Amino acid sequence: MCVLSRTSRNILILCTVVFVVFLPNTSHELVNPVQSSSSLEEDFKRALSDEFDQGHIVYLVENLGPLRRGESARCNSFMRTVGRDREYELQGRKSLHLGVSYYQNNRRYFDRAEYLYGVPPEVLLGMLRIETWFGKCAGGYNALPALFETYTIGAKSWNWFIDEARALVRYCLLKECDPNTLVSSSRGALGFPQFLPSNFFRFAVDGDGDGDINLFSDADAIISMANFLSSRGGWTHGINRKQQRRAVWKYNPTYQGYVDPVFGYANAIRPLLLQTAQQN
What we know:
Elements: H1 33-36, H2 38-48, H3 73-82, H4 93-105, H5 107-117, H6 121-132, E1 141-142, H7 143-152, H8 158-175, E2 183-184, H9 197-203, H10 218-231, H11 241-251, H12 259-279
């Protein structure tokens, strides 16, 4: 995360209007907001004026960078290791080994997630493997421009963008980060569980009891994902497979074919987890 100094804290909300420097085109070139998007600027000011100080909500963002694409150095290094090795495919031997190792390192949090919400570790492992390779690839895009691009390409509505931008500003005020440089997915999702900013406030949980909710920590990510499946998806102890699949679908309904790979991985890793438990 990018931490702001005390003297630059007032710049934080200025970053929330970075979207006005982008027009819905494929080049992502910077555009003067006064010349091109004054109506969007005014709409954005009105939309956020009930929560944030109007003096901070201005259009002076001409030098803010465009959408940054790519992944982190950590992810790039890992993906070079993966290469074209078929054993790293979803249900490949090395992919499953990564899941077992991640489970062993965080077993107490998986146990707690299952105790509290009824979500077994293999399902959470399947989701974490698909979402971020167990936190190794949590995104390399800048959050606010990513949210705005999701709106401009027609994937989401203006109201969706406003709600998520508002939540992102609130998140960055809490975490003292810059919404224009905070790392996210290409759709503006945050952390190991890939929560949209609004879902941080709805479902994120302090999994390790350290007094801070950090979606870039294993403990908080694991417990928060289970809480999401329970609160949003209706996952409880003893639900049937159809209900389980419905809960997982609600976690990521925009990704075609999300549910089958999650349960495919879960089914493949379950006997390995049982074997690990017997050895311990």
